[in-house]
Amino acid sequence: MKEKYITRYEASKGQSYTFVGWRLCITRKGERFVRYFSDLKFGGIEQSLAAARKMRDAMMEDMAGGVDDYKAFFNSYRRLGRGE
């Protein structure tokens, strides 16, 4: 199933680190918001996807009323916890 703004993301750099999870990426008027939701941190594939969906849905709802400054809007979400 394709999720709008959410993609599966896996990255590794040798054996020093590995990330497996979901990437939420929303771009508006030249401003970009990106947040990663790790399977390890959230307890599995479904839980990390649910956290990414929750943040995406909250952002979409907040944007529905109109946003004048996307940089400030995205920064307000950057200050939030990691999808909790």
In short:
The protein has 84 residues and is α+β, with helices and mostly antiparallel strands. It is built from 3 helices and 3 strands. It has a 3-stranded antiparallel beta sheet.
Question: Could you walk me through the main structural features you see in this protein, from its secondary elements to its overall organization?
Answer:
There is one protein chain. The radius of gyration is 14 Å and the shape is globular. The chain has 84 residues and is α+β, with helices and mostly antiparallel strands. It has a three-stranded antiparallel β-sheet with strand order 1-2-3.
Oligomer: single chain
Q: What is the first-to-last residue Cα distance?
A: 23 Å
What composes the largest sheet?
3 strands, antiparallel
Please report which band the strand proportion falls in: under 5%, 5-15%, 15-25%, 25-35%, 35-45% or over 45%. Answer: 25-35%
Helix content: 25-40%
Element-level helix/strand string:
EEEHHH
Structural class estimated from helices and strands = alpha+beta
Unreliable sequence segments = none
Shape: globular
Helical stretch tally: 3
| Overall mean pLDDT | 90
Spatial order of the strands forming the largest sheet? 1-2-3
Count of strand segments: 3
Cα radius of gyration in angstroms: 14 Å
